[in-house]
Automatic annotation (TrEMBL):
Residues 751-843 form the Fibronectin type-III domain. The keyword Nucleotide-binding does not apply. Keywords: Signal. SMART domains: CBM_3 (SM01067), FN3 (SM00060). Residues 844-996 form the CBM3 domain. This is Endoglucanase. The keyword DNA damage does not apply. Residues 1-36 form the signal peptide. InterPro entries: 6-hairpin_glycosidase_sf, 6hp_glycosidase-like_sf, CBM2/CBM3_carb-bd_dom_sf, CBM3, CBM3_sf, FN3_dom, FN3_sf, Glyco_hydro_48F. It holds the Pfam family Glyco_hydro_48. It comes from the Bacteria.
Amino acid sequence: MKWSAFKKPVSLLMSAALSLTIVSGVFTVHSSQAFAASSTEETRFLQMYQQLKNPANGYFSPEGIPYHSIETLMSEAPDYGHMTTSEAYSYWLWLEVLYGHYTGDWSKLEAAWDNMEKYIIPVNEGDGKEEQPTMSYYNPNSPATYAAEYSQPDQYPSQLSGQYAAGRDPLDAELKATYGNNQTYLMHWLLDVDNWYGFGNLLNPSHTATYVNTFQRGEQESVWEAIPHPSQDNKTFGKAGEGFMTLFTKESNAPAEQWRYTNATDADARAIQAMYWAKELGYNNSVYLNKAKKMGDYLRYGMYDKYFQKIGSASNGTPTAGTGKDASHYLMAWYTAWGGGLGQTGNWAWRIGSSHAHQGYQNVVAAYALSNPSGGLVPNSPTAGQDWTTSLKRQLEFYTWLQSAEGAIAGGATNSWDGSYKAYPAGKSTFYGLAYDDAPVYHDPPSNNWFGMQAWPVERIAELYYILASNGDTSSENFQMAKQVVQKWIDWSMDYVFANQRPVTDSEGYYLDSLGNRVLGGNNPAIATVSAPGEFWVPSNLEWSGQPATWNGFSSHNGNPNLRVVTKNPGQDAGVLGSYIKALTFFAAGTKAETGSYTALGSQAEQLAKALLDAAWGYNDGIGITTVEPREDYYRYFTKEIYFPNGWTGLFGQGNTLPGSSAVPSDPAKGGNGVYASYTDVRPAIKNDPQWKYLENKYNTSWDPQTKKWTNGAPEFTYHRFWSQVDMATAYAEYDRLINSDQGGPVEPVAPKAPSKPNAVAGDAVVNLSWNSVSGATSYTVKRATTSGGPYTMLGTTAQAAYTDSNVVNGTTYYYVVSASNSVGESPDSPEASAKPASTPIPVQGNLKLEYRTNDTNPGDNQFRPQFRIVNTGDTAVSLSNVKIRYYYTIDGDKPQQFHCDYAAIGSSNVSGTFVKLPSAKPGADYYLEISFGAGAGSLAPGANSGEIQVRVNKTDWSNYNESDDYSYDATKTNFASWEKATLHLNGDLVWGLEP
């Protein structure tokens, strides 16, 4: 790497320190000399946070949903700026994690997750609306009916042929056992935030935001060729009697009304990645950490072939149905999808994975968090931890296999060549049976040409390198692969990234050396530059040639001399810049964590990161960091490209008929027999956009349809994409956290914030206290009073966010506050927490014993799910019809309730439940569930047990419970164990346990 690639400018200095005032949840920034100066990077992060959260700037909808962009006239992945994606939600979480790190206020993170669960995770989050209403009918032995993928949209709809029988889904049973149902806890990828399309939210009409989808027709279908359609299709829109389904698949009968959702695996993985960092930075609310675990549990469906075919079995063109984990490639595929029926014939459901894995979607940090106890987010399903352990190594191997000789990462691999399980081409390189694909999933434009698909995933590898090095793991094979990939990638990328200089290129976007020659790859090229103070430049596109060698393990990897890349088209993509800076930052911090000081390359990476951050700030227009974008592809707003089969006509949500009266015949060379419509034929409301007249005039005066060039310049737009702004904001925060703080840097120390969310738990002559960790705190002081509000006396200090007070008297209520301290000073006190210790009664123990467990990792959702086993420890048989179980809990809003027995070894029909309200509330209980058994349950012989009994309870309005303080609930009991806080009664007498 040449140091001459950039010159580090003098850092911009703040003329005055900044103080922050919170007004209605939004930051107001104003100068003050009284507040100790923060670092430049911390200040800029908080300024960008204010810009993003200021309602006047328009990043969020009235329902609090982040828009893809402030601006509306755009077409990229979403085809309208006020759509949103699961990607945007995942970035929102990351923003709030770092805000929590700086302020100690984690409520914003929890509010973001709540909004995500409400609007883009299609589950009943407690409002009584079932958004996966028929998932319980899913048959894991027959997940879906096969339909081939095709190269052109014109070849659709695809026949639901069942040519290849689907394999067996091995996850469904354990997910049901763990969570009580199989309703997928993942985000749907696309949301029409303001109902711009007009379809409306069928299953939750109170929400303006509507689940929609676009891409459904093969690798060549671009955003310009996609047809937006509702994800909940009761045939109100689309073709009469068919809805939109017959544009994509065909069957012998008219399609049934149905719902269907598609998940983008990278977004949910990023959400889990954000929660991992929240936990590392002091967040400890188990309710939301458990939600991240649950998301990771279901995210494993992204590891499976589309139709659960055995991995590698289709290399000769004849796939074999998988029987379980043999259908898992253990990578993050492009998507997973699931759906089912609506209406009276809706007693069916389906599920698919994806056969195609793109390198840009892998997330090694999420895999680490979900597999390693040190990661802290291992899901509760029995095989989830091992699956993610395998996935972590597999992803690192994948990157090693795909890394070019220069250092860039090539496309990916597939288990279904051409999307129809064709035989692999002769000589095709493979990875664990998957075939190499330089542009998996989509070809318009090729999916691995954009530099962002480099910066996103390698930033995560840089994070893992830093995590492992910080934990002292510098010898494992996983560490060696992470280090090799990120080090080689950083070395390559820094040759083509510039701060305060502009690279010299030719008219086709190729970088030039000092002699004017094109740079066509190779190691450490010397790019010609001109001075350009305040500018930044990163690559936009890559050209690929060759392929990697077939993978035979890390120890035999040869560095891929035959896989090459040419780097092109320097641009000013602020979103890519943010991810790239974080990759540099984590890599630099990782070299220091590994060796004790920055390596030469690590030092260069840190200095380039700083120079890029300083240059980028000059592009902040008061709303965000953005640059002017020439959009040469926007002529496609006016071309006829959207394919409709012959005779297909239907109603779009904006009131127009599809394909409209101005469609033109399709190109028979593309395999179809139909017509093409334009973007405006399908979405006429776009003509009402305030920027439409500008675009239309530019097209009429500058676009030459013969040369296909913009003769007077392409239309230019300035976009404030939410994810892009968060990427830049978090780049400032991560640099400050990892570089400034690690070095002692330019940060002037300040006293810590007050601890938040203190919790006091009483025991027998003891109170156990805990609270959220505070950034910058070196110790905590615990104070106590016997009167609420004090005065408080100091009990002691601790370096941990927990304390045990054993100097208490049973029967007395104690009130606690905690402050945080460091060398600068002490914080204000935390909010107050109280507890009343009490002696522990001796539970009754007769000749029956109750064993209990729970796999319910979300104590704040709308159901609770205890599981029991009754053991006969006596020497005579006991009739179960004479036995009752009582489980004590708080109802958290008195509403009618429903009992379900999901499974019982003695037969679910032999198990019933009733609800009894206590005459007066007890600690942790105002109700108990009484479980009884019918005559068909039989009797328990001496020494025998009843087998598993799985029950589930909900309120009829599906409002939430809060189990965390329930008397009979214990989240730690994930395996059957004796449990005295649920009781057994024989012929009306208490024979086991302890009543509250």
